[in-house]
Amino acid sequence: MQGSANLNVMIKAARRAARSLVKDFREVENLQVASKSAGDFVSRADIAAEKIIREMLMEARPNYGWLGEESGGVEGKDPTRRWIVDPLDGTTNFLHGMPHWAVSIALEHKGEIVSGVVYDPAKDEMFVAEKGQGAWMNDSRIRVSDRGRMSECVFATGIPFGARGGLPEMLQDLARLMPGSAGVRRWGAAALDLTYVAAGRFDGFWERGLHAWDVAAGVLIVREAGGFAEPIVPGAPLVDGDALIAANPEIFADFAREIRGEG
Length: 263
Fold this sequence. Notes:
By secondary structure, the chain is α+β, with helices and mostly antiparallel strands. It is built from 7 helices and 15 strands. Strands 4-3-5-6-7-8-9-10 form an 8-stranded mixed beta sheet, sandwiched between helices. The longest helix is centred in the N-terminal third of the chain and has 21 residues, at 5-25.
């Protein structure tokens, strides 16, 4: 894919941050870890990766705004553009030595995501998309699956942990969905869940309690791969909301009805 100048700098920033993260991942037992809340950790590796990304992106586009998981938000001189960054999606996996985590970078223009990058260093899979240009994994174009029977579909989600609320609602979701599906996976990295929908590995994804940095890049990649993405609550914000549903077009309507309790 011949990407724009913005996409190219996003890819470079993701790779550079990933090199730093991989070094720490190899020595995960020695990481200095601070607890933000039960089951929700932040490491010095996370903070260092965000610093790398921020320096590269802001050097390339100093007037753009910024929203990062660790450093929060800053409005830029250009109020129409904003970087949205999760330097380490899947922190708990990372800290437990499980090789399923990613760097996620998105560019928003006038409230719409126009470029997205999700990089999985452990598997060396770089998922990218730009508005109107399709979605790609490394050098291959990707498309959502075409499965049209819920009974054949595998779904991904995130299950609340620690002191987070929402578990009863999630259990209701699972009770409605699982009897009629081929299974549900909980892999602990929303950005990768969305790219897996885009690549046809999962047929659909839903989760509550999300943040913009969790989903901004992944939403664009799903849509550019031919999928649908909507807030679970109709009319709510998509990227800046906290509850998202995404799937291939064949099963989206049925899937959405189940998750929204309309079935």
